[in-house]
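User: Can you recover a sequence for this backbone? Please restate the input before giving your answer.

Assistant: Of course. Working from this structure:
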C-alpha cells in the first residue's frame, strides 16, 4: 500500500550540491571537496573571465546508480564484520 510522501519527508539525499561539484575531485573510494578560494574582487572576473563547467549535476541518491538486492548482498559479504557474524 502506497500512501505517498509525508510532510517534510525527503525523497532523496543530496551528498554534493551542484555548486560544490565545481570544486570536487573524485577518487576511487571517495569525493574530496576542495575549499572555494575564489576572491570576492569581481573586477578580476570581468577582466579574466571564469571557467564554466557544464553538466555539473549534484551527486545524490536520486542521480546515482542504485544497487539491486543481489548487488547489495555481494557488497555486504565483502565486509569482514559481516563475514565474521554470518554464522552466528
Amino acid at each position: 500500500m502506497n500512501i505517498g510522501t509525508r510532510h517534510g519527508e525527503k525523497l532523496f539525499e543530496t551528498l554534493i550540491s551542484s555548486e560544490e561539484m565545481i570544486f570536487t575531485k573524485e577518487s576511487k573510494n571517495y569525493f574530496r571537496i576542495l575549499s572555494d578560494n575564489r576572491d570576492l574582487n569581481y573586477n578580476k572576473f570581468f577582466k579574466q573571465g571564469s571557467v564554466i563547467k557544464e553538466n555539473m549535476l549534484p551527486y545524490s541518491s536520486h542521480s546515482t546508480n542504485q544497487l539491486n538486492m543481489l548487488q547489495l548482498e555481494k557488497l555486504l559479504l565483502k565486509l569482514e564484520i559481516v563475514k565474521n557474524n554470518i554464522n552466528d
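That completes the design. The chain is about 30% helix and 10% strand.
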